[in-house]
Write a structure and sequence with these properties.
Helix content: under 10%
Largest sheet: 11 strands, mixed
Distance between the termini: 40 Å
CATH superfamily of the largest domain: Phosphohistidine domain
């Protein structure tokens, strides 16, 4: 039997080391796929220009299934549930229709939680498939349709700046970007969030308190891009109605200089935030897309970049977490660190720090 191994970005291949790649590009050709979870209908054609809010495909959302405890809901023993059933397997019901009951002095009933279908009834429990309605896929950013299969996927292309992060809360939106503060390490504070920022996408260095996150909701912010987010605020950020992207990591970590400079130089432009979860298996990351006029100088980003002399990197762990530098040498021998770890390492010239030796596992390529 043949054994198939899937190579991951951080695996060593011969003498080459392939760390994760994070893009911070002032100009690139950006292609992104929009895919329905189930086959549906594509609403655009190849070469069509679309805006961020345009629906490019729509179809039925994947159904949800719920178990309803009929015995408990009716207040009767399991063996008596059959007497009160008002629906059978395969029945299609509308929200609020009676599934079972009434029972007892209180005339207790169990009703359909939404439009849906009865899948099965067993041991006093009913499995109900809820209709989830129509799912609309929006373009997310101004682009040109360059590919589609006609039923499920649409490939979009634009030219612009691309900034990728390491954590996102799963939301997405599009709006005008504003920088809150004067530098890459400035904290997001409530006294800086006023009506002038209503409906904007906000950029700040650090957030270590929940108040400004909630205040941003009050001014209808379209999103927030941060360098660092306090780890205890992850559950708060995950529940927010707007996208949140963290570029550096969790803790009091500023935006790195390349990221801050690129974002601040494009303040006032319309940008797209896609705060998708980071997926190491396919390399997809939360990202900021800043559409720019097309030019012949733009290229597709490189998704695989071997670690070698001259490559720009960002440190992903302490003590220099978030620092950016350039690899000056790939050390031939593994380094024995005070922690007792023996690790393959590189000599890196860090901005503002100088030459330091870093385990390659602590590095990501910054293109």
């Amino acid at each position: 039997m043949a054994l198939l191994l899937q190579l991951k970005p951080d695996m060593i291949m011969g003498s080459a080391y392939l760390p994760p790649v994070s893009h911070v590009l002032p100009l690139a050709i950006i292609r992104r796929e929009r895919r329905l979870p189930l086959a549906g209908a594509v609403a655009v054609r190849i070469n069509q220009k679309v805006m961020a809010s345009d629906v490019v495909a729509e179809g039925e959302a994947p159904p949800r299934h719920v178990f309803l405890d009929l015995a408990r809901g009716l207040g009767v023993p399991v063996h008596e549930v059959g007497r009160y059933l008002r629906s059978q397997r395969g029945d299609a019901l509308e929200a609020g229709e009676v599934l079972a009951g009434p029972a007892g002095m209180g005339r207790r009933t169990v009703r359909a939680p939404s439009d849906g279908i009865v899948v099965s009834i067993s041991n006093g429990r009913l499995l109900f498939r809820m209709h989830s309605g129509v799912l609309e896929l929006k373009a997310g950013f101004p682009a040109t349709v360059v590919g589609t299969d006609g039923v499920q996927t649409v490939l979009l292309e634009t030219t612009g700046a691309l900034i990728q992060g390491m954590w996102g809360n799963g939301n997405n939106d599009f709006g005008v970007m504003r920088v809150v503060g004067d530098g890459p390490g400035d904290r997001l504070q409530t006294d800086r969030l006023d009506a002038d920022l209503r409906g904007a996408i906000l950029v700040a260095g650090i957030c270590d308190h929940p108040a400004p996150l909630h205040q941003a909701t009050g001014i209808s912010a379209r999103g927030i891009v941060l360098g660092g987010l306090a780890s205890e605020l992850i559950p708060v950020a995950a529940r927010l109605p707007y996208p949140v992207i963290v570029t550096t990591g969790f803790g009091p970590l500023p935006l790195d200089n390349p990221t801050f400079n690129l974002l601040s130089s494009n303040a006032g432009r319309e940008v797209a935030l896609d705060a998708r979860k980071y997926n190491p298996s396919d390399g997809s990351r939360p990202e900021v897309i800043i559409p720019l006029p097309p030019t012949s100088e733009a290229d597709l980003p490189e998704d695989v970049i071997p670690l070698k002399e001259g490559v720009r990197v960002r440190l992903a762990r302490p003590p220099y977490h978030g620092s950016v530098g350039v690899v000056r040498e790939m050390l031939a021998r593994a380094v024995d660190y005070p922690s007792g770890i023996l690790a393959r390492s590189a000599r890196v010239d860090l901005d503002g720090v100088g030459l330091t030796i870093v385990p390659v596992d602590n590095l990501e390529v910054l293109q």
